[in-house]
Amino acid sequence: MMKRALLATVVSSMLGISAGQAAEIYNKDGNKLDLVGKINVSHLFSDDSNNDGDTSSYARLGFKGETKITDQLTGYGFWQYQYSLRNSEGSDAQTGNRTRLGYAGLKFGKAGSLDYGRNYGLVYDSLAYTDMLPFFGGDSGYTDGFLAGRSTGVLTWRNKDFFGLLKGLNLAAQYEGKNDRAANTDGVRRSNGDGYALSASYDTDFGLSISGAYASLDRTEAQNAAARGDGDKAQNWATAVKYDANQIYLAAMYGETLNATPISGGFANKAQNFEAVAQYQFLNGIRPSLAYVSSKGKEIENIGDADIFKYVSAGVTYYFNKNMSTYVEYKINLLDDNNPLGLKTDDITAVGLIYQF
Question: What is the model's pTM?
Fold first, then answer.
């Protein structure tokens, strides 16, 4: 969601159109309700059968609302659901359908906002700077992964412009309760103990921004019992910088994790993540993109060091208007054929069309 919101804002400013990506349903007496939606139909081309064909087309639908309680107090909520478009109308009709986000909270004037529910983990505040590719990207932002991506049961406080005292300085703090999921591979991967995250960013008035975030959570017994990854705590930090002005978008991110990056057999004891992206927004709607994305596991049991993912992305998006766009992206896989984690090494090409409101 962040990726597309950022892109929409950039495109809107270039094309001279409204940046709003929502359909207003109701707005009266301090109560507002908007409908948000997106349909992304795509086709992948690859020698890897798991990434060939219509494997990832989807539709998203959500609502966001606000209610003014007093001059200094506003209530708000957001919900978003994703429907897979690759399913038949048979037994697999609900496969892959899921709630992405759902939270409610209060805004307390300059003191900030406080909400609870399923929301983005604060480490993603930094990861989002480079999660801007047309189709791929965001590999380090694991969903249900120690506050690196969308997470369940998070209490989040955010403050913009440092209590109104310093424009551009934004702070956030977050707590996540224990989520001990099913005792299968995916359930163990998506579990977590109690923990917290902190985030800070500074936005200048000339397009330069910096961000840093840190998370520390307890690991579950099942995670510690896995063959790989040993430690009571999972830790995750990332820092990023971006330049977003004059039709140019440049961003880089570096981060590290301890016992938090999933691999076959459990988790990497340590991982180093680096991403960089460069894009340019032409006034005719064309936006070329070039990126490098990598993660390297360290001190992996019975292996040592190994690449978890490493690729170069070259792509282009064309925006017909604020609601309609099309894209093509080529992912050049840089993993060795004999990589010790047994990961796929095939290149992938993605072609797609997006309608959003």
Answer: 0.93
